[in-house]
Amino acid sequence: MEYKVNNLFYSVGPDFLNTLRSRLEMTEPVNEEALRKALDLAISRYPYFSVKLERKDENYVLAYNPEPIPIISGGRAVPLGGDESQGHLMVLSYIDNLIYVDTSHFLMDGNGQFPFIKTLLYCYLKELHPEEEFDTSGIALPGSEIPFAEADDDPFPENEIPLKPLGIELRPKEVLKLDDLPQGYEGRADWTSFRMKVKQKAMMRFASSIDGSPASFIASIMYRVISEMHPDSKLPVVCGMQHEYRKALGNPFSHLCLVNILPIVYADRLRDKSLETLNTIGRGVMILRGNVANDRVYVNNHVINEKKIRDLSLDDKRKYMRDYVIDNIGENTFEVSYAGRVPFSGLDKYVTGFTPILDMSLSGGISIEIFAINEFFCINIMQRNSDTKYVDRFIEILHENDIECEPESPEHFEINDFVMPR
């Protein structure tokens, strides 16, 4: 069985891997035998994730991979598509009470991955706690029907959709870049995760009082931090807000990576504005640019790219898509991603934390992932070095607004390499 490849795969190279690690913190040490049984059950429900990338003439295709998806002890991030992963673009690893689900970000985004993680956790916890009664209404159980809309490998239209966008992409040509952080994969061994937990009620009480959402609120605080740390810069600070366009595609259940970046531009004149004003601006931009009419621009970009690369050689496909991705993603000062509260269907009784970890190669230098679990927001601030000045000030601003947080010890993190087919 073959699946059509997402054209973004052609952009992968030694300077752009775009792999994704999801870190699950469990209440109990990981049992590998139970995890093996759970993974085999879960992947039977999501066979389109059991694939390897292959070259076919001048194209890539995703071919079904019958080999078991590896489970790596020690928590290492092994290369995807290589020998250690048995060619798979998904690998599980574990250490102590941590489970890592490692994938290519071009195979899936967070919204595509999370249903699989819920099925995996259900199978795993049911193996360990057979007496437990979980609410399975929000879980795709092994053996259940796989809807076509979910598994469809090419949900895009043949031709562009007529557009009536409500706003335009006003991204300045020059933005503030954090020169105190290395670029690309320079100093990759120093990439650092600063994780913290913030009480949902405390943060939402304050954010709601100033017309904020979790995403716009965190973006406003990080803008304030960066503007204070770089008082002499007159360049605009741009937050790349991650946003998914499944609704615009007309397929809310697609497993594919359907993420675009909404730029929130903070001009220098906003430097001394209140958090309330910054939140109003941020939410307004998200509402205007995160509209279905605007999102169809990204649907059309995919359609246009498919037509442009259809008859190109493999080398030319890779060059064209690499230039496209870098031009559209890499021009931010920092990034923020918030997928909303995804219900765990009661499984979170055994889960104390969930943290997506990203490839930082095209980041402005700081990327923030926000995830809601139990009564906390789990916030992960990722940097390309271990300097604490940005995070320290971020925490100070939370405290200044009576929002307590529980920071964890900083941790160097790794991402998976990616082995391209020959």
| Mean pLDDT over the residues | 92
User: What's the story with the biggest beta sheet?
Assistant: 8 strands, mixed
Terminal Cα separation, in Å?
Answer: 20 Å
pLDDT under 50 segments (min length 5)? none
Radius of gyration computed on alpha carbons: 21 Å
Total beta strands: 16
Shape from CA axes?
globular
Q: How many DSSP H or I helices? A: 10
**What proportion of the residues is helical, as a percent range?**
25-40%
Roughly what fraction of the amino acids lie in strands? Answer: 15-25%
SSE order = EEHEEEEEHHEHHEHEHHHEEEEHEE
Structural class: alpha+beta
Throw out a few tags for this protein.
eight-stranded mixed beta sheet; 16 strands; alpha+beta; 422 residues; single chain; 10 helices; five-stranded mixed beta sheet
Per-chain topology:
Layout: E1 2-4, E2 19-26, H1 32-45, E3 51-56, E4 59-64, E5 71-73, E6 90-95, E7 98-104, H2 110-128, H3 148-151, E8 192-199, H4 200-209, H5 214-229, E9 237-244, H6 246-249, E10 259-266, H7 275-289, H8 292-309, H9 314-329, E11 334-338, E12 351-358, E13 366-373, E14 376-383, H10 389-400, E15 405-407, E16 411-412
Parallel strand pairs: 5-6, 9-11, 11-13
Antiparallel strand pairs: 1-4, 2-7, 2-12, 3-4, 6-7, 8-14, 8-15, 8-16, 9-10, 13-14
Helix pairs in contact: 1-2, 5-7, 5-10
Can you offer a commentary on this structure?
It contains 10 helices and 16 strands. It is of the alpha+beta class and 422 residues long.
